[in-house]
Write a structure and sequence with these properties.
The complex is a heterodimer. Chain A is built from nine helices and no strands. Chain B folds into two domains: 51 residues; 51 residues, no CATH class. Helices cover 65% and strands 0% of the residues of chain B. Chain B has six helices and no strands. In chain B, helix 1 crosses helix 2 and helix 1 packs across helix 3. Classes of the chains: A mainly alpha, B mainly alpha.
Chain lengths: 179, 133
């Protein structure tokens, strides 16, 4: 299987099949990050499409000095931030949130670990947007502070503050919820 | 929580992430040695980090990804094939092409236009078109 750099090069030479291979390689990862940031599957799917579309149209701007995955995930994070600012998406999100009561957990979902993940995801959605984005890119996607700063167009010091505040807030909420 | 703990808290987080220089690191470590509350907070932060890293990757729904623009259909191709030479001829003979005014679009104005004799450039164009056809 060719590596990312080779596929990007082929794609720039007009081989659209190479881009399909990149999509196949990263679609789950891009979707997961979008879902963690947006908290809703259909919005995450829209964001995934937009992210791949942007990646395709801006592939010539990609700097091969950095990993393709990092570039793509940073791009995805920016798409998600914009999507949340988009009023229609925001409205849909608010409508979903207004339905309030989450569906009753199935027997399987009552398993402790899964319950904890649901709690973490729910609390993540309560964090202010830049803190959530920074937390997910840094902890979930394991990007460096410098990469997160570039993705969110913020100084590194600000990213470190978001990470500290986000982590402390999550700790407090988790302790309140889990006792 | 004591005041010095609260003041040190951001540095404590930076220490956990390895972002501090040597003097700041030493100051935090000195505090940690005598403060069980801050040690407990560190452990809780580590648990938060682990919980975030443990979130599973989710399978993306079946592909609904953007596709390349389709080729023009047959009718569109034919229209393009007919329009392009005509447009080129119009440009070549510099036939006057002005945006019509609202008055010119009235039915009476259209009838007048159709019954009016050709202007010289239009007559030339018509002659050339007949030759081509």
């Amino acid at each position: 299987m060719p590596d990312d750099a080779t596929l990007v090069e082929r794609c720039l030479q007009g081989d659209t099949g190479a881009f399909d291979a990149l999509v196949a390689r990263y679609r789950d990862r891009v979707f997961s990050l979008a879902f963690r940031m947006l908290g809703e599957a259909s919005a995450a799917e829209d964001a995934m499409q937009e992210a791949f579309l942007r990646a395709y149209t801006r592939l010539a701007l990609y700097d091969p000095a950095q990993p393709f995955a990092t570039w793509l995930l940073c791009l995805t994070a920016r798409v998600c931030l914009n999507a949340r600012r988009d009023r229609a998406t925001e409205q849909r999100y608010l409508e979903q949130a207004a339905k309030a009561a989450p569906p009753a957990p199935t027997l399987e979902e009552r398993l402790y670990e899964r319950e904890q993940r649901r709690t973490v995801q729910r609390l993540l959605m309560r964090l202010p947007e830049p803190q959530r984005a920074a937390m997910l890119l840094y902890y979930y996607e394991e990007l460096s502070v410098a990469e997160v700063a570039r993705a969110l167009n913020a100084p590194e010091g600000t990213v470190k503050t978001w990470l500290y505040r986000g982590r402390e807030t999550l700790r407090r909420w988790l302790e309140e919820e889990l006792g | 929580m004591r005041n010095d703990c609260k003041r040190l808290e951001p540095a404590l987080h930076d220490w956990l992430e390895g972002w501090l220089d040597a003097p700041a690191r030493a100051a935090v470590e000195a505090h940690l040695r005598r403060c069980p509350a801050c040690r407990a907070k560190l452990e809780a932060w580590q648990a938060v980090g682990r919980a975030l890293r443990a979130l599973p990757q989710l399978p993306a729904p079946a592909a609904r990804l953007p596709e390349p623009a389709p080729e023009p259909r047959g009718a569109l191709r034919l229209a393009l094939a007919l329009c392009l030479p005509t447009a080129l001829l119009l440009v070549a003979f510099r036939a006057p092409i002005d945006a019509p005014s609202v008055d010119a679009l009235k039915p009476s104005a259209v009838v007048q236009t159709l019954t009016r004799p050709f202007t010289a450039p239009a007559q030339t164009l018509w002659n050339r078109l007949q030759e081509v056809i």
